[in-house]
């Protein structure tokens, strides 16, 4: 074996296995299989034009060399991003631990209690610090969270406000520039009018339904949110506050003043800046708005034995159920980052956070006093960590950069500085010397940090926080390490067994792709540093854009969207801008097939489009006649078609070129949902099938780990006519020359995570990528064949083949009283995570093994499925007391002295031989979703609850 060939590590089946698998399927060669799978008319005729594949060793040297092109200055820019100290125990045991980063979104709650608990901690931390009643388990970044707050307040406008057409939203000019840009993107299409102004002289007119404040403001002034909220409430104006999480340790919680929503980022809690992300944003609101909250909420419920268990709550709000009526399009969020930020609070506890926040504040006060002694005027009258000085910005900038420091310069006469956790006394003195030199004075030496307070008394924090036991128990490294391990052991991730999630492509996240994420020269770069300091990033991001443009067969790429759903919204907004540039302001119809993912219709509505659903044929394909009819009917207003390819049914529709042509003939653009790109790379591409734009889920196809529900990266790739409209950023030049406003807070989205996909493509090269696609198709067809007779595949291509995934029909088992979820839960007893359940067809499972799974692992999975089928055959409909309905079985059940079930303990817990060697124990019995939704609890129990029990 050529040990320098990364594809041999990335791809599961060995050469000998591949031969056997092809035989099982009944084809002579891989070429024959691909020929029978992909329609001839869309195959690529040449290899992708990419760099030759690199060995892991060479890649690590290469990415190390590139990292050296980034210049790590001491950075005081602020604006929503700060240097931090990530506790090493969190870095090693979470960020660098596949037990955490390879987990899937916790839909199968019984084998996800660890990360569900970590996320409940996160929610509790947020509700405590913000003073709100309920919080979600993360959004994509602060600016999108602010936009979600605006949307929520818009949709909960009181009925008479709605009737009166009240649609104005006030945005304080203290808000971050990237947030204002993003609000513009999101407001226009849904009919919200933004008014940007000073909060001091806002007139609280009845024309406004809501307002957004920044706390503290972008230049550091702690605005009087208390009086603003009081006045706003008196005028029926609802208020959202974008609050800095660290400052909330010292500042009174906005919830105490009556805020309706509080949002922000948790990057400051130990997460590296990573040139813009990924970081978890938070969203907290009142209980009354619980059904309008975007994103995922973790809630407490009970299991089949009445024991406490956690699961995702209120899912009926979400896009996968509500589609075009959903509260938002959020699907992938920032789970891994939320877990880490929550763990930072667990590690430090309230006293540690108080120490850190006070130290930041004291350093800021000391610097402010010293510079004032030097004769500089500091404008902020009440501040936490950020100072705004009157000074000659040009001179200071030159001095500061010479000393390897970055400040923020809003104009020629002001210099803004944000103090952070790692700032030292020595660094404060360096800052002072820069200011002194700029006016030709001698520096003043700071020898001691002052402890005076510069926060307005009215706004000083009085409310306690993080009193729950979990935040007061794990403060030594040994304790935290064990707590993290205890949670990890409850979760099934890719380091235990295959997670064959249809549409989600849970492939290998190679260690060599992940390692650079821990390196300082990638982590410690602020997204708004001058370009010369981020040359390493620019090299990687530009190369990744080019790689993705080549792979999709398009003309340009934007890496800005930080999830697939965000990519959809971005792509549709780009299409809208294109139509408008041609005077077609009225084009607002978006045709979406009924089998589409829920994010598609939800994104179309956010983009101000009207959704028209087209039918599927009995074979699961798009009904071309119905599509043509609808496209022609709406040809004057047609904006776009959203289509997934291969379809969510796991089929390469051969009519795809005809379909894209129909849309073009009627004046529309074609948006391809690229979630299934793993079935295309190197064999065909969106450009080839006639699409105009697609998003890619780098966290599916391009090896970014799922993280338990994020981070994601959802770049859009576009054809030539759409390149000018790729999204921009107000502070850093990016995007097209007629760029739409921001889609994400950071100019290049979650840059740090982009390293993974870059490495993936670099190490596989054109040949390895193509081979991976072929192997993904081979693996899927192998499973399809092996399950034949036990589970029937619902849809196949014209020549009888599946694509890279297939839907198996579980509806016939209803005759035995068995539902698809019973099979999903029973798989846990066999040590497997279920495939996708009931998407896109209710009562089915969608299996996607990916190229990374070996034949042995797929055989174990198929053996488990077939064994479950035998179990079903022996079940009678009238008796619910059976192996499937009781699944999953916990260790507590199996080891109980009493055993009254009508099958043996062996059958329950060790149904096949292989299970014995690698048993995974679900930590709770089946969870009760309905109970939890009726009795919603979304935070850890306070200490009093524990005291009562005692
Ligand atoms: C995953 C997925 C999406 C949404 O992507 P996110 O990154 O989760 O927002 C959209 N469409 C399809 C078909 C998907 O599988």
From TrEMBL:
<keyword id="KW-0663">Pyridoxal phosphate</keyword>
<comment type="function">
    <text>The glycine cleavage system catalyzes the degradation of glycine. The P protein binds the alpha-amino group of glycine through its pyridoxal phosphate cofactor; CO(2) is released and the remaining methylamine moiety is then transferred to the lipoamide cofactor of the H protein.</text>
</comment>
<dbReference type="Pfam" id="PF02347">
    <property type="entry name" value="GDC-P"/>
</dbReference>
<dbReference type="InterPro" id="IPR049315">
    <property type="entry name" value="GDC-P_N"/>
</dbReference>
<keyword id="KW-0560">Oxidoreductase</keyword>
<comment type="similarity">
    <text>Belongs to the GcvP family.</text>
</comment>
<dbReference type="InterPro" id="IPR015424">
    <property type="entry name" value="PyrdxlP-dep_Trfase"/>
</dbReference>
<dbReference type="InterPro" id="IPR020581">
    <property type="entry name" value="GDC_P"/>
</dbReference>
<dbReference type="InterPro" id="IPR049316">
    <property type="entry name" value="GDC-P_C"/>
</dbReference>
<dbReference type="InterPro" id="IPR015422">
    <property type="entry name" value="PyrdxlP-dep_Trfase_small"/>
</dbReference>
<feature type="domain" description="Glycine cleavage system P-protein N-terminal">
    <location>
        <begin position="9"/>
        <end position="435"/>
    </location>
</feature>
<feature type="domain" description="Glycine dehydrogenase C-terminal">
    <location>
        <begin position="772"/>
        <end position="889"/>
    </location>
</feature>
<dbReference type="InterPro" id="IPR015421">
    <property type="entry name" value="PyrdxlP-dep_Trfase_major"/>
</dbReference>
<feature type="modified residue" description="N6-(pyridoxal phosphate)lysine">
    <location>
        <position position="700"/>
    </location>
</feature>
<dbReference type="Pfam" id="PF21478">
    <property type="entry name" value="GcvP2_C"/>
</dbReference>
<feature type="domain" description="Glycine cleavage system P-protein N-terminal">
    <location>
        <begin position="464"/>
        <end position="729"/>
    </location>
</feature>
<dbReference type="GO" id="GO:0004375">
    <property type="term" value="F:glycine dehydrogenase (decarboxylating) activity"/>
</dbReference>
<dbReference type="InterPro" id="IPR003437">
    <property type="entry name" value="GcvP"/>
</dbReference>
<comment type="subunit">
    <text>The glycine cleavage system is composed of four proteins: P, T, L and H.</text>
</comment>
<protein>
    <recommendedName>
        <fullName>Glycine dehydrogenase (decarboxylating)</fullName>
        <ecNumber>1.4.4.2</ecNumber>
    </recommendedName>
</protein>
């Amino acid at each position: 074996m050529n040990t320098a060939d990364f594809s041999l590590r990335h791809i599961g089946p060995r050469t000998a296995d591949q031969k056997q698998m092809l035989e099982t399927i009944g084809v002579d060669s891989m070429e024959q299989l691909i020929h029978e799978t992909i329609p001839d008319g869309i195959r690529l005729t040449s290899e992708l034009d990419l760099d030759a594949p690199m060995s892991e060793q060479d890649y690590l040297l290469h990415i190390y060399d590139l990292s050296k092109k980034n210049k790590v200055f001491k950075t005081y820019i602020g604006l929503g991003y700060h240097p931090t100290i990530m506790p090493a125990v969190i870095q090693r045991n979470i960020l660098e631990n596949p037990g955490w980063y390879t987990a899937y979104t916790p839909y199968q709650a019984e084998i996800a209690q660890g990360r569900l608990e970590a996320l409940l901690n996160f929610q509790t931390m947020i509700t405590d610090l913000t003073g709100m009643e309920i919080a979600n388990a993360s959004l994509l970044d602060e600016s999108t969270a602010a936009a979600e707050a605006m949307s929520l307040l818009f949709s909960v406008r009181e009925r008479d406000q709605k009737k009166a057409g009240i649609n104005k939203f006030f945005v304080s000019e203290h808000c971050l520039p990237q947030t204002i840009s993003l609000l513009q993107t999101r407001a226009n299409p849904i009919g919200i009018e933004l008014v940007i102004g000073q909060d001091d002289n806002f007139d609280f007119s009845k024309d406004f339904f809501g307002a957004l404040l920044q706390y503290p403001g972008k230049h550091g002034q702690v605005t009087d949110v208390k009086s603003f909220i009081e006045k706003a409430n008196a005028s029926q104006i609802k208020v959202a506050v974008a609050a800095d999480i660290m400052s909330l340790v010292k500042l009174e919680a906005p919830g105490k003043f009556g805020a309706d929503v509080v949002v922000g980022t948790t990057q400051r809690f130990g997460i590296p800046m990573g040139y813009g992300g990924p970081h978890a944003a938070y969203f907290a609101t009142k209980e009354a708005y619980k059904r309008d909250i975007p994103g995922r909420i973790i809630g407490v419920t009970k299991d089949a034995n009445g024991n406490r268990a956690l699961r995702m709550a209120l899912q009926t709000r979400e896009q996968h159920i509500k589609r075009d009526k959903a509260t938002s399009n959020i699907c992938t969020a920032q789970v891994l980052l939320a877990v880490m930020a929550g763990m930072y609070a667990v590690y430090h506890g309230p006293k540690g956070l108080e120490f850190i926040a006070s130290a930041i504040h004291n350093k800021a006060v000391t610097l402010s006093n010293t510079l004032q002694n030097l004769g500089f005027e500091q404008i902020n009258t009440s501040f936490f960590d950020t100072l705004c000085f009157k000074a000659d910005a040009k001179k200071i900038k030159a001095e500061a950069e010479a000393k390897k420091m970055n400040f923020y310069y809003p104009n020629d006469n002001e210099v803004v500085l944000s103090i952070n956790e790692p700032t030292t006394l020595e660094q404060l003195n360096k800052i002072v010397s820069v200011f002194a030199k700029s006016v030709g004075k001698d520096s003043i030496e700071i020898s001691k940090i002052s402890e005076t307070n510069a926060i307005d008394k009215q706004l000083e924090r009085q409310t306690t926080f993080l009193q729950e036991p979990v935040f007061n128990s794990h403060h030594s490294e040994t304790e935290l390490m064990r707590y993290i391990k205890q949670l990890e052991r409850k979760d099934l991730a890719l380091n235990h067994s295959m997670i064959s999630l249809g549409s989600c492509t849970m492939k290998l996240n190679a260690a060599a792709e992940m390692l650079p994420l821990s390196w300082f020269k990638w982590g410690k770069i602020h997204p708004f540093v001058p370009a010369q300091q981020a040359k390493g990033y620019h090299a990687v991001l530009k190369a990744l854009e080019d790689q993705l443009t080549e792979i999709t067969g398009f003309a340009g790429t934007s890496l800005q969207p930080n999830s697939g759903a965000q990519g959809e919204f971005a792509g549709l907004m780009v299409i809208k801008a294109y139509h408008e540039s041609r005077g077609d302001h009225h084009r607002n119809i978006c045709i979406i097939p009924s089998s589409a993912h829920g994010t598609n219709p939800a994104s179309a509505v956010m983009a101000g489009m009207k959704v028209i659903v087209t039918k599927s044929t009995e074979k699961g394909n798009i009904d071309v006649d119905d599509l043509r009819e609808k496209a022609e009917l709406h040809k004057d207003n047609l904006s776009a078609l959203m289509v997934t390819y291969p379809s969510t049914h796991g089929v390469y529709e051969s009519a795809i070129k005809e379909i894209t042509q129909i849309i073009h003939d009627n004046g529309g653009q074609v948006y391809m949902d690229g979630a299934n790109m793993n079935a295309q790379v190197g064999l065909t591409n969106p450009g080839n099938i006639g699409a105009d734009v697609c998003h890619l889920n780098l966290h599916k196809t391009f090896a970014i780990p799922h993280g338990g529900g994020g981070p994601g990266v959802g770049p859009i790739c576009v054809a030539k006519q759409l390149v000018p409209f790729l999204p921009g950023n107000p502070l850093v030049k990016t995007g097209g020359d007629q760029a739409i406003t921001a889609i994400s807070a950071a100019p290049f989205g979650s840059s740090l995570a982009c390293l993974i996909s870059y490495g993936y493509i670099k190490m596989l090269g054109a040949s390895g990528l193509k081979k991976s696609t072929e192997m993904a198709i081979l693996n899927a067809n192998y499973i399809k064949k092996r399950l034949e007779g036990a589970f029937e595949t619902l849809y196949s291509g014209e020549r009888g083949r599946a694509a890279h995934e297939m839907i198996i029909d579980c509806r016939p088992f209803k005759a035995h009283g068995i539902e698809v979820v019973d099979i999903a839960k029973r798989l846990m007893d066999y040590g497997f995570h279920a495939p996708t359940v009931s998407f896109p067809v209710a009562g089915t499972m969608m299996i996607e093994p990916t190229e990374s799974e070996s034949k042995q692992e797929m055989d174990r999975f198929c053996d488990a499925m077939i064994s479950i089928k035998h179990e079903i055959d022996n079940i009678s409909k009238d008796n619910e007391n059976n192996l499937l309905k009781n699944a999953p079985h916990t260790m507590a059940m199996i080891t109980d002295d009493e055993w009254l079930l009508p099958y043996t303990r062996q059958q329950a817990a060790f149904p096949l031989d292989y299970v014995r060697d690698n048993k995974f124990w679900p930590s709770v019995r089946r969870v009760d979703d309905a109970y939890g939704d009726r009795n919603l609890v979304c935070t850890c129990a306070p200490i009093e609850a524990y005291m009562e029990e005692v």
